[in-house]
Amino acid sequence: MKKILKSIQWLLFTVLVLIAITWFVWMPSAQEPAYVLEKTWGGKGSAAGQFNEPTGIAVQGNEVFVSDSRNHRIQVFDLDGTALRQFGVNNLERPMNLTIANNELYVADYFADQIRVFSLQGDYRRSIGKPGTGPGELTIPGGVAVASNGDLYVSGFTNQRVQRLRADGSFVRQWGITGEVGTFGGKLRYPTDVALSKNGTLYIADGYNDRVLAIGPDGKLLTKWGGPFAINIFGSFNGWFTTITGISVGPSGNVFVADFYNDRVQKFTRDGSFLNAFGIKSTGPTHTTIAVAEAEDGSVFVADYANHQIQKWRPGRAHI
Fold first, then answer.
1. 201-224 burial by CB neighbour count: b if 16+ within 10 A, else e?
2. pLDDT 10s per residue in the chain (320 long)?
3. Among 2, 223, 242, 246, which is most exposed with the fewest C-beta within 10 angstroms?
4. Is 228 helix (H, G, I), strand (E, B) or coil?
5. Positive/negative CA dihedral, 27, 32, 37, 41
């Protein structure tokens, strides 16, 4: 009987140790003061300053660019939400995630199966890619990132891949296996967006795998994160995801992730260490965090899909 009791004690001890390790490793605490919601603007409609499902956001200097998806346009605001201009109505079908590079705005046009490029003032410049599943072709592109040499990285939502293309759209390489959904063996599950750091690290929002993949300049996997082992275990704990819809690297060098079904943004270091989480919990069937971008002053702007508006958050202050 004593041996049995001792075995049970050791078993309980082992279980408690495993729970403690799991909590410490996969349920990290915030490393920064909480962000504070400063303001919101918008509302459903088609007038200037209103939105019909905003789906992408980018910041350049003192201007905020928003994909107003079902109004088929880009709207531009100052950092306080004052409407400045709009464009793209005649050139966009359903704009999604955005990126700005070399003083141009790159728009993943979801239904056109192309990347549209505009000047920052709104002049249409060119389109990259054509519909299809072959090398260099696009089907439902969700996001785009642009390297300093002009190369593009494009997430193909239904093609289950991220492609690297030259500026003229010619194919270089890809991550994921075209048309094959998966979690292992180099496969992706509906990748939604991509972002590039200044050192050339590519971050892939592997949307329905509920994880982020970090790819080095040599094209090899550096790290991945999102729940235990980043193998499509979803949840609402810190560092876990329930469908990623947008990803960006801010001027701070940190990685911001739009955690759609958890109605929040999560912030990480460039190597995936959890820093913070913030957002507005939705009480309805739709959700409030689909895309995110950081400004130079540390403010964070969120495209609020559910409420057809933009949220502006500011970093909190540590207690002294």
1. bbbbbbbbbbbbbbbeeeeeebeb
2. 656 656 666 666 555 554 555 555 668 999 999 999 999 999 999 999 999 999 999 999 999 999 999 999 999 999 999 999 999 999 999 999 999 999 999 999 999 999 999 999 999 999 999 999 999 999 999 999 999 999 999 999 999 999 999 999 999 999 999 999 999 999 999 999 999 999 999 999 999 999 999 999 999 999 999 999 999 999 999 999 999 999 999 999 999 999 999 999 999 999 999 999 999 987 777 789 999 999 999 999 999 999 999 999 999 986 54
3. 2
4. helix
5. negative
pTM: 0.92
86: which 2 tokens? 């709009």
- Residue in this structure with the two tokens 């041996």, named with its chain if needed: 3
Amino acid at 221: L
